[in-house]
Amino acid sequence: xxxxxxxxxxxxxxxVQELFDISNQLHQLGSRSLxxxxxxxxNPFKETSxxxxxxxxxxxxxxxGVVFSSxxxxxxxxxxxxxxxxxxxxxxxxxxxxxxxxxxAEQSVQEKKV
Length: 114
Description:
Layout: H1 2-32, E1 36-42, E2 53-59, E3 65-72, E4 77-85, E5 88-89, H2 96-113
Antiparallel strand pairs: 1-2, 2-3, 3-4, 4-5
C-alpha cells in the first residue's frame, strides 16, 4: 500500500513540476508580448487645424518596444518609429508627445492592477 502511494505521489510531483515549467514559459512569453499601449493625438503646428498628428506607444511587460509618431503638415505627413528600452530612449531622443504617450501606456497598466 505504501509503495502504491509512493508511486502516486511521484506521479503527482511530476505533474506539478510540468505545470510549474509551463507556468514559467507562459510568464516569459507574457513579459515579451504587447502589454502596454496608448495613443495620443496632438496639434504640433498652429497653421493646421485639428489634432491630426499622433503618437502611439506599443510596449512589452518590461516597458520596451516602439513608439510611432506622425506629424501632419500642409505639405504632407511624416511618420517616425523609435525604439523604447525599459521606458527610455534607445538611440533617438523622444519628443514631449512621445514621452507623454509612453507615460500614459505605463499608467494604463497600473490603473488596471488597482
